[in-house]
Predict the structure.
Amino acid sequence: QVQLVESGGGLVHPGGSLRLSCAASGIIFRLYAMGWYRQAPGNQRELVASITNDGRTNYADSVKGRFTISRDDAKNTVYLQMNSLKPDDTAVYYCNAKWAVIGQDYWGQGTQVTVSS
């Protein structure tokens, strides 16, 4: 059974930082591209950042220079370091694991991030 379990969300003031973690089980983690997506109320889910299985990263323009995605294949975990947070970053953040070659795509349950004074 595949599980992606996010943690690290919460309430933070503007300008603050949070680190999200996503622990994966039930997959051969090193073979998967991993991504963080977010969805704010009334909005579509959008890609925040992704990292390939060989470490190449991609970021949404809105988070470039503020967020950093990384992975630890030994721990089957992907991270999202979020700095200089803004109220517009408020959303539910979802972890995604994708192995496009064989069409496998898994999602976590999401973790709430709220940026507010």
